[in-house]
Amino acid sequence: QRVFSEEMECRWSLLLLLLLGSSALAKPGARSGDEECQQNVNCFLPDCLCASTENPGNLPLDQLPQFVVLTFDDAVTPTNYEFYLTFKDFLNPNYCRISMTFFVTHLYNYYDMVNELHRLGHEIALHSVTHKDDVDNYWRVANQSVWEHEMADLKTMLETYARIPAEDIKGWRAPFLEVGGDEMFSAITDLGLQYDCTWPTLHYTNWFDTEPLGALWPYTLDFPSIQDCQLGRCPTQIYEGTWVMPMVDLEDNTGQPCAMLDACNSLENELLVDPDAVESFLRRNFEYNYNSTKAPFGLYVHHSWFYEGGNSTDARRVGYTRFLEYLSKLEDVYVVSVDRLLAWVKNPVPLDDIDSIDEFGCYEPESNCVDTKIFKFTTENNLPVEVDAIYMGSCTLVQPKYYPWIYNPLGDQNITDV
């Protein structure tokens, strides 16, 4: 009996050692796919936040800032640059400038103008090099390598031609909101980016259905997401420390959801011709959050939306501007870029203490893009599209030999077809 017991004890000891060894070799933080995220139990700020409709600091509503996030997609050009500058005099309650996020693409981009937007306090984020319009045959089937080059090569261009510090480039949005599944999120994580802002949600809003679930706050992918998947392929794996900024759907004037303003419809064209209707539409959607949970409210748009219909109307510009003027009168509303919102989410302080977060301070550094150049690239420079010439503004003085493009961000390789 004694021999048997000693033998069994030896076997159990060996099994324990094997289990400990396999645990030590496992990926740090690895967990089973069905483990439930529990804040302050197995998920801790500032690195991990469970997906939730509750604010991360459990603050009373009267102590909770209402955040409004404004983003613009695609290249910054002489066509839209002056429009973006019209918002530089809007201030938050702490008398610092509002900040917006620009998800930038490369084609036709003027990097000197991107530099100035960054200097004024706006966030510059990634939206792909190519922005190819073939969703089915390019984005939907893209592997991790394609996603990585669309992100990393644009990041190199922003660092080189716009002189944006690498550490300031934190976010990504996929073209056409085509969520790229685990391939895309693996690329985000491997490149050290902090967040994605591609993923719309209808179920988690403050207006959908007879008993709305409430609008989602940003969260990390340390655990499987609870968010509904509307477009593309949503991730099935976990990505520790990678943030999701949910694109909470708006309700357009026909009662239908729209993730971006460009897709919002109206009953009688009023959102194209009537500035009062535009302002009313924006205020109604804002108040779904402001008068209930005060979850972040996002307005996501392309510059072209403001000029749809040619020169026949500027109702959208006027209505949008009036909406910002309305927000500027509210002492608990902060219009911030995605990265500033996440800075607060990681350290959720009451409204009166918001200036304790460095990212909310006022600053306007000296320009590091004093000498700018406008480069002209022709067909001799391997243009990727069927045009005779492309212009590119830059903070660098020496023009690349070839037009910078995916797999060739510095324009130093004779690549003709990618």
TrEMBL record:
SUPFAM superfamilies: Glycoside hydrolase/deacetylase. InterPro entries: CE4, Glyco_hydro/deAcase_b/a-brl, NODB_dom. The keyword Signal applies. It comes from the Eukaryota. GO terms for biological process: carbohydrate metabolic process. Residues 1-26 form the signal peptide. Residues 66-194 form the NodB homology domain. Keywords: Signal. The keyword Signal applies. It holds the Pfam family Polysacc_deac_1. GO terms for molecular function: hydrolase activity, acting on carbon-nitrogen (but not peptide) bonds. This is NodB homology domain-containing protein. It comes from Cherax quadricarinatus (Australian red claw crayfish).
